[in-house]
Amino acid sequence: MYVIPRVDYCGDEDPNHYAFRMALNDCLTAAEARREVQRRAMVDVGPVVYFVRFGSHIKIGRSVQLWRRLAQLKRTPEDLLAVVPGGKAEEQEFHRRFAAAKVYAELFAPTDDLLAYVNGLRAAAGVGAFLPRT
Q1: Quick check: helix, strand or coil at residue 125?
Q2: Separation between Cα atoms, residue 4 and residue 37, nearest integer Å
Q3: In the chain, domain spans
Q4: Distance CA 71, CA 8 (A)
Q5: pTM of the model
Q6: How confident is the model at residue 6 (pLDDT cuts 50, 70, 90)?
Q7: pLDDT digits (tens, 9 = 90+) for 12-62
Q8: What is the layout of strands, in order, in the sheet containing 80-85?
Q9: For strand 80-85 and strand 107-108, is the pairing parallel, antiparallel, or unpaired?
């Protein structure tokens, strides 16, 4: 299991930040470096099940072209909470697992169980915990 981390934050002032180091190494402006980090992160990773922030809910879906699907949903990389390898069977298993939180179709309320699972994936990938908007 893996998580696609957020890469859209500004790191101009942090010399350890990847975009900052890339700007120094490749003579790019900070804005160009952030765009390059974004571009490199948007390589499709194959069939996945994704967890994405969708308003006050979490959408559990699947896609072979994750970044294209996010664009179709009008979501940004920062809305992407976690990603695990898998297809239809794995997506259906997640839907069954979190059925008590189901609001409509693929939308789920951010229950303690669902948040614990998503945050467990994020912690394993070294990404900060997701806190739903209140």
Answers
A1: coil
A2: 12
A3: 11-41, 48-124
A4: 15
A5: 0.68
A6: very low
A7: 444 444 444 444 445 555 566 556 656 655 556 678 999 999 889 999 999
A8: 80-85, 48-54, 57-63, 107-108, 102-104
A9: unpaired
Q: Count Cβ atoms within 10 A of the Cβ of residue 30 and give its class: 0-12 exposed, 13-18 middle, 19 or more buried.
A: middle
Please name which of 49, 80, 74 lies closest in space to residue 62, comparing C-alpha atoms: 49
For residue 108, which amino acid is it?
F
| 46, 85 Cβ separation under 8 angstroms | yes
Going by their DSSP bridges, the two strands 102-104 and 80-85 should be labelled as unpaired
Phi-psi region of 122 (alpha: psi -120 to 50; beta: other; left: phi over 0): alpha
Residues 42, 36 contacting (CB under 8 angstroms):
no
Distance CA 62, CA 47 (A): 7
CB atoms near residue 59 (< 10 Å): 19
Cα 10 to chain center, whole Å? 17
